[in-house]
Design a protein that fits this description.
Elements (H helix, E strand, L loop, with lengths): L2 H28 L6 H19 L2 H9 L7 H19 L2 H24 L2 H23 L4 H6 L8 H23 L13 H14 L7 E5 L5 E4 L2 E6 L6 H20 L15 H15 L3 H15 L7 H8 L13 H20 L7 H13 L25 H20 L3 H6 L4 H10 L9 H9 L6 H15 L2
Parallel strand pairs: 1-3
Antiparallel strand pairs: 2-3
Helix pairs in contact: 1-2, 1-3, 2-5, 5-6, 8-14, 8-20, 9-10, 10-11, 11-16, 12-13, 14-15, 14-16, 16-20
Length: 491
């Protein structure tokens, strides 16, 4: 057995163990008994300790040194790129620190969920201080003298820096702010009316998930406080949430998570348990969830199909036909919640978090001042005050999970989705007629063929460039938003 074969055999075992650890995380948010939190935090800590030990095993370094890189094909070269990067990063993080982070974030999740339910940031602040302290320490260790936030960001978007993303987001902001103001100055379309049975919402979410290509034989849909997707290959699970007054929350959370899940289900099976067997970055991952949810799911064509399904299931929706339904789906209105935000304002929610978490990691903002800083920034950006912590600083799960560097990938994913949508439209000229019939097969097949199947084979930006035939830019997203909402609001 060659050094490369030994390395890949070891890697597949590590990949399988990582999937088991991920399943523990899924269970914690979906099925775990409330009283099991402390025990689960220890279980997660042990799993992270084992995984960290494997990722930094001296044999990995020996195998890497022994492999003849020049003899490898494209896939082998990509495997080594990922393994070498993980190994080198792993060596910079002490095993105790990795274990401590796993333990505290598992415990922090329960405390966050309770604090969110009670609208009590003070109850969450002490454990968040510990999370931030440990993530600062991890960022400093990974940066090795460089920027700690960039080092954390690299976990989610390899090769990206905060400065690069700030430039892109800076180009987004002026046109988004101008579009938002123009839209909010116009009369609002009618909203959905009525009460919608939550079990019926879950039934429809299954139908919609299948319509977007989610394979239920290799997945399942459950409910969680914060919707998410988990797993890869033949076990890819998603969650959604329901609100009796707002079925769009359930349906579009489902479509969003199906975008993530479809990516993982479509990766080449030969990559299973290897570094190539998962999405290459969170920016590319978000490009899939956002194009499924927005450019496809909120299109005039698809919503005409969805309107029929909803009236069959719920009866009168209080709206005058498919066009009014389309406008209701895409209403631009003031709101607090990022995951419920319309396409025009969504990225403004992300940019707020991006700036605040950079300051937290840099130490220019402390947890004791975070709620006030959030509320001040929100008032400045959106023009109205936060009413309660669950609508503000406590609304997202990410910081309790230690996911610093994750938030900017949401907006990067939106930019990538804009580029992919432009290319998809050119490749499938009759896309609207297909979607109006509830047929998403051509759209999802194009995304599978051009993005999803490759997993981690290419670098993130290269994935988008190869699919679109040009380097990613914010322009297609902005052009799409201005055309779409200009038409809806008569601008």
């Amino acid at each position: 057995m060659t050094a490369y074969d030994k390395l890949m055999s070891f890697q597949r075992e590590t990949g399988a163990l990582a999937q088991v650890a991920g399943r523990l995380g899924w269970d914690q948010e979906v099925m775990m008994p409330h009283g099991a939190s402390e025990q689960r935090s220890e279980e997660m800590a042990v799993m992270e300790s084992i995984l960290h030990a494997r990722r930094t095993d001296p044999r990995v370094g020996e195998w890497l040194d022994a492999v003849d890189d020049a003899a490898l094909d494209e896939e082998g070269t990509a495997h080594l790129r990922h393994i070498r990067r993980s190994y080198e990063r792993g060596l910079r993080v002490p095993a105790k620190l990795a274990t401590d982070i796993a333990r505290i974030t598992s415990r922090a999740h329960r405390i966050w969920a309770e604090a969110r339910a009670d609208d009590d940031f003070a109850a969450f602040a002490p454990v968040l201080k510990e999370v931030v302290r440990l993530k600062r320490e991890e960022g400093a260790a990974l940066a090795a003298g460089g920027d700690a936030y960039d080092a954390l960001l690299d976990d989610y978007e390899p090769g990206a820096t905060a400065a690069q993303l700030s430039g892109m987001f800076g180009a987004l902001r002026p046109r988004l702010v101008a579009l938002r103001q123009a839209v909010l100055d116009r009369p609002q379309p009618a909203a959905l009316q009525g009460t919608f049975d939550e079990q019926a919402q879950m039934m429809l979410s299954q139908t919609v998930a299948r319509t977007f290509g989610y394979e239920m034989a290799r997945g399942r849909i459950d409910k969680a406080v914060h919707p998410f997707s988990s797993g890869s290959g033949d076990d890819v699970r998603i969650t959604t949430r329901t609100n009796a007054l707002d079925p769009f929350n359930c349906l579009y959370s489902t479509i969003h998570e199906v975008g993530h899940a479809a990516y993982e289900q479509s990766i080449r099976s030969s990559y299973r348990f290897t570094p190539l067997g998962q999405g290459v970055s969170m920016g590319v991952h978000e490009s899939q969830s956002r194009i499924y949810e927005n450019q496809l799911g909120r299109s005039r064509a698809f919503t005409s199909w969805l309107f029929t399904r909803m009236t069959e299931l719920f009866g009168d929706l209080g709206l005058d036909g498919p066009d009014a339904f389309y406008a209701a789906v895409n209403r631009v209105q003031n709101g607090f919640i990022r995951t419920e935000a319309d396409e025009v304002q969504y990225n403004l929610h992300v940019l707020l978090r991006f700036d605040l978490e950079q300051a937290l990691i840099a130490g220019t903002l402390e947890v004791d001042d975070l709620e006030a800083a959030w509320n001040e920034r929100f008032l400045s950006d959106f023009g109205f005050p936060v009413d309660k912590p669950s609508d503000g600083v406590l609304q997202d799960v990410h910081w309790s999970a230690g996911l610093f560097g994750y938030f900017p990938t949401y907006s990067l994913g939106n930019v990538y989705a804009g580029c992919l949508h432009k290319a998809l439209r050119a490749a499938v000229p009759d896309l609207d007629s297909q979607m109006a019939a509830g047929d998403l097969a051509a759209a999802t097949a194009w995304l599978s063929e051009n993005v999803q199947q490759y997993g981690g084979l290419y670098e993130p930006r290269d994935v988008i460039t190869r699919a679109c035939g040009e380097a990613p830019s914010e322009a297609p997203l902005l052009d799409y938003l201005e055309a779409k909402f200009g038409a809806i609001y008569g601008l």
